[in-house]
């Protein structure tokens, strides 16, 4: 079980780092990367559970595969949107994306 | 010959039909619109009159009841309990009339017709005006006739929307604020009402019907069911006990009180009872006179009706426990309204506060829980309806001529418009409770009823009629007596179309003042039966 | 159950709607590439519409088939793909709702979307299809994985849809915000799911229940963690306050039809997912019981209350109609959550799904109608502010009247769909004695009068700047008319649809899944 | 012939004038002179009928006749309306109809030039009919109804010249002050209703209850009821402290002052007490109160009358003080005395007012200091007025003497102090009447005043009334108690007392003599007192500052209270409402401030709130 708990802790740490990045980083690209970090934390969780979990099963690993691919797609779209945005603003600073408000 | 017609439905639906027809007419033809509107206001009025003629006080209105299921919504799919096969939520289309609603129906008929006539003052957008006006009437008639809680609520809400537009489009300077204030304030009222109704439906609006393979529980807002379930808990015997508890089909005292107080608030706002009255001042001052005729003449009475029909008949124990509270509230209404009316500088505000004062008398009548007092309450409602309708009719005529209702700018009108001033004086005397006019009977009966149980409080309340004399004379003499400002010289006195409703209302006020039995006999059956029930319920 | 079955033809038949949609998607992408520039892309719009309708037709056929007597299982459900996908009435009804709503939206947007605003109109149309596909997958998945896939399919496509107004700066900004919040939300949901999987060792929700029934007491802390993580994620997806801040921005930035799509379909799909997971894991008699369940339900009710309050109060001062509708969407999301939060608190409250679906349908109609009117009006006035509506009654009385009806329905005034939807939900709430929640619902409703009647005031009591008549397009007119009529019909005779739902629907069979 | 033949038609008596009223209001402006005649004829008809009734009742002992109908029936309760003909009501019928008819006749001349003459006659007709209704009504409720109606008519007629601000003010005052009294009466009525066995309100039952089953109503309650009813009487009959309205009511046309504010309506208060006398008799406290209030009012008003210069106001105060006499009589238990004085007073006071009217009509002023020497120019007026003054001053053998004598006798054997007070008041009465008469009619005429005798329609009523004022006293003298027997067969015989007769006659003559010395001979300087004690004179002339006192005590505080409540209503009650509204929209603004466009802020708020949620909800379980 200790194995599991250490993996879980690692995943939790990763998740928090990602979250922290999303919340604080000014560079939009870093923000997107941080999201990826959070998703990866999830993958770690899933795989750890599927190996050392109470009822180990294969499903977790399959799940993680799906997650990875989806994350990729999401990142792609995110970057694409960011490029469009950059065309408009000539900046990737999140703080400046505040025309929509109130 | 009318016996086989669904009279009540006709009464409710005729104005709706009229509204649709008005919508169909070309908006330029103001006369067509006006005449159609008046016709479709008259139809329900005439039907009500026929009802009045045909109604036998001894028997009650059972014969006219219309009852059919509107919605029946299954609440579960499969049997989860040995004895209960199915649960249904049932909403009925249930109209009925009795001695309590009939006088108010008549009032509605009269005042609405007069207001339709008085709407000649309306200068713009007749089409919209009249369609909304008729829609409003549907709502009002519905409220007085509906006997299903949900149906009642729907009609109650239906009155809100047209009023909002009528105030907001055709009102005076501050109309939009007043309209919104009206909507929100009354909305809160009906919210409280709906919550209380739903509690009632969910906890004892059920009737158990023996169906195939067990009991079918029907939940619904049928007034009679709820009343009988409330008044004899033996009704629960139909459903075995653990079931009722499993479903929370029981109304413990706390819940009863919640429901009761919610109802009190809901209708208290409409009446209005003391702290909840500010909205109606705005309406009185900002709305166009014909609409105020309806509002002050009828809509406030919906509150009274609700108080009696629901708060009182459903929860007599609670009401009995709170008689003191309500009586004191009534006295506060009377004196507060009266004293404030004495210092207003704007005639419409004087009338608004006097309405508050008169509604206080109604509260006293209700609080008495005596037959005399209750009849007094209804009587007072009717008479106040007529009187304030008359007064606001005149306000309309005066404003049309002088473009002001500020007491300081008016005076001496008796010289230039003697007829209007005469009727105004009559209305004023009626509202200060002069014997021989309707106001006196209502006040006297209410006081008489209340006096039996609490002498001191009532005695204090009676002081109100002194202040009534003060504010009525102060304002009306200010308008009609004294010297005439030169800009008002040579005004035309009332045209026929104005004089007609004035005379009608005045005549009715006098009739009710001289020959009250015409109404009181109607109410006999309505009340005495219920009071017996109540007394048996409360153990003598 | 570990041995995966292969996809049989029969299964394929049962998957027909989904397949149709995917085929149409691919087809239209190709067509969009091949068609020469000069051809008006409305063609693609019409084809999209066709695709949606065909799929809808299939759904109807399947429903009759599944519920019909000739099916193998009397339960009226059909389990596919190793229990990861399930055909039942909950799913089907929602599928119908989603398809119908999308069809309305696409139809209404035909002719109103301007080229200079959305340069590549083709995308705007055909990307709706995968989005709806995702929503449908979410509606009838029985497995965390498929649920998640559906969710992402929907989300990612809607990111693109939001960004469709390439030329406008705010559109792409909205898209970016949507991506970030959506991404984080997905991450939360997933993280929560991962714990759920860790405790139960399966991703299949129905198996989960039986496992949880035995083991829930050992892992209380973990359960809290997983459920609250999921709640956080879903709260963002559902735009429940205080997770709603993105919604107004995104709606404002997106093309109006897309905003409508997000408000109705995306939200509905997310709700489908939430109902699935929570209902399955919470079913009494097996599944999660006791303290944890109580707390989760309480948390849900609190969120619902917060959403209603914030959504309504926030809209009070809102001058931009799109943001206003977004906020009203927040409030309505709160209302839609109430049936779930009163789930199984009382043996009688089985009607929660019919309450939910009924209000969802009503909400769909009134929202789409309102958004369509907004599209038309803002196209005229050039901005989306309240003042654009001023004097509308004089310019276009019928539109104004229709809008009034829709707004009354949003405000929950009789006699409209919104009114009855709220009434049923209220009744359910009162039945389980959650008076405080009912009270909040009622009070916020009243406050919302101020919001919606503010709009009505603009239309009737103010004189507008423009006095020319309103430039209305035929499809938009039809959509507005249909939505208005539907709203009224739902109010006057709600019986048909309700009766129908109740006839075919049954919680234990259709919402909760028993297998293995 | 059946000797209730006319009595059964007594309800016609009020009906005639009512029909006249209806016709006049309906026709309105159409008929000018004819309108006046309609009113007069109607009143004449009722006069004739009531004389028939009287004749019928005088011939042999006719039984009392009464007739009721249910007005409102609620459950077991019945509210009844009905009329009854007794000797008492017959007497009142005759008095009212007679004076009413004469006033109608008189007004033909007096109001000739007024363009609203038909309205005037309509009002008068309405008043007459409701006054007759009041007289005939057989139970307290009906009585109260007509009681209010006469009040309104008085209000309308006082304010008849509505363009004069004073008239407007006077009318308002008259109505409101009497309304205070009505309030008392109404509450007394309600009390009585709930305490009377069987909720009966008719006078017969009332009489029986107090006569036979004494103790049916406890003494405390009886006293309370009696006092409340008395408040009503005080209001109507202008007794202290509610007398303030009556002098102002003189703003109305003079015939009205004669009819309403001298002969009939103001006497209704006395009549009320007579009607409910059983209640008063049952409570000594009530009796004493009545007596004291009456006596005090008598002397109090008389003193004020001394210092007034407006001819009508002097008469008004004299009315107040004479009504005080009647109350005094009741207080000392002499119903006969009260009714007798009411009877005679009706005639001579009406006479005096009509005479004053005739004077005013010709000299167009009411200030006696601007008159003088009119005796030569207006012979009939002067003579009749003189007779009236003698009657009022209680000079034998004029009617006033006998009735006053009856009262004084009763007062003496009940309560000597009251007797003394009454005697002094009588002296003042004679004094101010002398002043009035001599200033107006004696002395040399003012130049520029071409006064001339009024037309015959005005003088004939004067003559008739003068005759009555002279002879009507003989129906009840110490030597034959006929009236007393007729009215109250079981009533107490009032015994002759030579002393009283001498004293009252003496003070009357003394008063007249001093008046003569002062205002004709001039042996006593007119302002003898005003030089010595100017303060006293002004105090009296300003009516003891009662009006000012009331203004400070009641009017101001009420206005203040109203203003305060108005602010309260605006700022507190409505303020709360507004506050809630603003609070809500403030929250709305807060929300939009939170949506500042920073996506990361959104995420942060979300994170924080979920943490709070977890801590709040899950936390409960773990800690």
From TrEMBL, chain A:
Output the InterPro entries linked to this UniProt entry: NADH_UbQ_OxRdtase_chain4L/K, NUOK/Mnh_C1-like
Main subcellular localisation = membrane
Identify the EC number(s).
7.1.1.-
Catalytic activity annotated for this protein?
Answer: a quinone + NADH + 5 H(+)(in) = a quinol + NAD(+) + 4 H(+)(out)
* A Pfam family assignment: Oxidored_q2
Q: How does it sit in the membrane?
A: Multi-pass membrane protein
Q: Does the keyword ATP-binding apply?
A: no
NCBIfam families xref list: PRK05715.1-2, PRK05715.1-3, PRK05715.1-4, PRK05715.1-5
Q: In UniProt terms, what function does this protein have?
A: NDH-1 shuttles electrons from NADH, via FMN and iron-sulfur (Fe-S) centers, to quinones in the respiratory chain. The immediate electron acceptor for the enzyme in this species is believed to be a menaquinone. Couples the redox reaction to proton translocation (for every two electrons transferred, four hydrogen ions are translocated across the cytoplasmic membrane), and thus conserves the redox energy in a proton gradient.
Q: How does it assemble?
A: NDH-1 is composed of 14 different subunits. Subunits NuoA, H, J, K, L, M, N constitute the membrane sector of the complex.
Give the protein's recorded name: NADH-quinone oxidoreductase subunit K
UniProtKB/TrEMBL annotation, chain B:
Q: Which GO terms describe its cellular component?
A: plasma membrane
The chain positions of domain NADH:quinone oxidoreductase/Mrp antiporter transmembrane read 146-464
Where in or outside the cell?
Answer: Cell membrane; Membrane
Principal place of residence: membrane
Entry keyword set? Membrane, Transmembrane, Transmembrane helix
List the GO molecular function terms: NADH dehydrogenase (ubiquinone) activity; NADH dehydrogenase activity; ubiquinone binding
Q: Name the membrane topology term.
A: Multi-pass membrane protein
What the entry lists under Pfam families is as follows:
Proton_antipo_M (PF00361)
What the record says about family reads: Belongs to the complex I subunit 4 family.
- Quote the protein name from its UniProt record: NADH-quinone oxidoreductase subunit M
UniProt signal peptide: none
Q: Which InterPro entries match?
A: NADH_Q_OxRdtase_chainM/4, NADH_UbQ_OxRdtase, ND/Mrp_TM
**Cytoplasm found in the keyword field:** no
Provide the transmembrane region boundaries: 6-25, 32-53, 100-122, 129-146, 152-173, 185-209, 257-279, 291-315, 321-343, 350-369, 381-399, 419-441, 447-473, 494-515
**What is the scientific name of the source organism?**
Cohnella endophytica
NCBIfam families, from UniProt? NDH_I_M
TrEMBL record, chain C:
Q: Which of UniProt's keywords are assigned here?
A: Cell membrane, Membrane, NAD, Quinone, Translocase, Transmembrane, Transmembrane helix, Transport
Alphabetized InterPro entries for the sequence: NADH-Q_OxRdtase_suN/2 (IPR010096), ND/Mrp_TM (IPR001750)
Where do transmembrane segments lie in this chain? 12-31, 43-66, 93-112, 124-141, 147-164, 176-201, 221-246, 258-278, 298-317, 324-344, 356-377, 398-415, 435-455, 476-501
Task: List the GO terms this entry assigns under cellular component, sorted alphabetically.
Answer: plasma membrane
> Where found?
Cell membrane; Membrane
What does this protein's UniProt record list under function? NDH-1 shuttles electrons from NADH, via FMN and iron-sulfur (Fe-S) centers, to quinones in the respiratory chain. The immediate electron acceptor for the enzyme in this species is believed to be a menaquinone. Couples the redox reaction to proton translocation (for every two electrons transferred, four hydrogen ions are translocated across the cytoplasmic membrane), and thus conserves the redox energy in a proton gradient.
Q: Please state what the protein is called.
A: NADH-quinone oxidoreductase subunit N
Q: From which organism does this entry originate? A: Cohnella endophytica
UniProtKB/TrEMBL annotation, chain D:
Q: Name one Pfam family in it.
A: Proton_antipo_M
Which residues span the membrane? 6-24, 36-59, 79-105, 117-137, 143-162, 174-196, 216-235, 256-274, 286-307, 314-332, 338-360, 380-398, 418-443, 455-476, 496-519, 599-619
* InterPro entries per UniProt: NADHpl_OxRdtase_5_subgr, ND/Mrp_TM, NU5C-like, Proton_antipo_N
Task: Indicate where this protein resides in the cell.
Answer: Cell membrane; Membrane
Q: What class of enzyme is it?
A: oxidoreductase
Alphabetically ordered keywords of this record: Membrane, Oxidoreductase, Transmembrane, Transmembrane helix
Molecular-function GO terms, alphabetical: NADH dehydrogenase (ubiquinone) activity; NADH dehydrogenase activity
Per the record's keyword annotation, is Oxidoreductase included, yes or no?
yes
Stated membrane topology is:
Multi-pass membrane protein
Q: Which domain of life is it from?
A: Bacteria
Record has Ribosomal protein as a keyword: no
GO terms for biological process, alphabetical: ATP synthesis coupled electron transport; electron transport coupled proton transport
Catalytic activity, EC: 1.6.5.3
Which residues belong to any copy of the NADH:quinone oxidoreductase/Mrp antiporter transmembrane domain?
Answer: 137-429
Q: Where is the NADH-Ubiquinone oxidoreductase (complex I) chain 5 N-terminal domain?
A: 71-121
NCBIfam families the record matches: NDH_I_L, PRK06590.1
What's this protein's family per the entry? Belongs to the CPA3 antiporters (TC 2.A.63) subunit A family.
Name this polypeptide is given: NADH-quinone oxidoreductase subunit L
* Organism of provenance: Cohnella endophytica
Taxonomic lineage from the root: Bacteria, Bacillati, Bacillota, Bacilli, Bacillales
